[in-house]
Amino acid sequence: xxxxxxxxxxxxxxxxxxxxxxxxxxxxxxxxxxxxxxxxxxxxxxxxxxxxxxxxxxxxxxxxxxxxxxxxxxxxxxxxxxxxxxxxxxxxxxxxxxxxxxxxxxxxxxxxxxxxxxxxxxxxxxxxxxxxxxxxxxxxxxxxxxxxxxxxxxxxxxxxxxxxxxxxxxxxxxxxxxxxxxxxxxxxxxxxxxxxxxxxxxxxxxxxxxxxxxxxxxxxxxxxxxxxxxxxxxxxxxxxxxxxxxxxxxxxxxxxxxxxxxxxxxxxxxxxxxxxxxxxxxxxxxxxxxxxxxxxx
Length: 297
Ligand code: C5P
Prior knowledge:
Elements: E1 3-20, E2 26-45, E3 50-54, H1 68-80, E4 86-91, H2 102-117, H3 124-134, H4 138-143, E5 146-150, E6 155-158, E7 165-171, H5 178-188, H6 201-209, H7 212-218, E8 220-221, H8 224-230, H9 234-243, E9 248-251, E10 258-262, H10 265-278, E11 283-289, E12 295-296
Parallel strand pairs: 1-8, 3-4
Antiparallel strand pairs: 1-2, 1-12, 2-4, 2-5, 5-6, 7-10, 7-11, 9-10
Helix pairs in contact: 1-2, 2-3, 5-8, 6-7, 9-10
The protein binds cytidine-5'-monophosphate.
């Protein structure tokens, strides 16, 4: 018997970052939007805990206990006294180290898959607590849709989305480490007065209205200067997408994936084609949002 769970990627339409806290984390006002690029996690009873991965980026995925899918299985087994000897297989379509919560998706997916396989049926709140333990973005991977994340991003308030948004994503030739990007944010902000992060009312209104023009006018990412500082070539990718008519161009989360908001499916194809032709990125994908959270197939 096995269970498969599908989990979406995310883009941050607003990522407001506060000053570093005493614990090294940063308070955020993080507006997550789930997008229709997915990883699928399949769990099957096995002789030992084992992780395998397939997909274009599979070689970069750690298969030991540092993998969030393995950690999710171990934490759930420990909490509910189950046997963690399972085979976790990840069919990976979300870019690795890309700023689209691919690792978090696998953690949330493995958690829901094991909960189902083991017949636990843990309360949603319990699953969300375990997700928050695994990482700041993992709770959102479980719930999907759109949400405001506060604290270090793990405290979620669901948000209304009034329509379908069309996106193009450009995957870069290498990854960026999230801790390294936050460290660069700290370095660039040294000596500056960093305001408390707050969600933009105009942006929340644009999401609720399903209005891509209004959303494009309000998207922002405080980590973008840090990501560009570590990966300057991303500026060329952003320029290529803007030049092809994207309504907005931004780095997704800590990057280096770049995200382009467009008006409709036709514009998505035009921008995707221009990005492919620009030679400034590795692959280009088109996706719509919002997408549902982790779902048992
Ligand atoms: O929570 P998660 O393990 O995904 O975070 C990865 C790293 O990103 C943290 O170790 C920290 O360096 C940085 N981070 C942060 N502030 C946040 C979220 C993440 O500094 N709110």
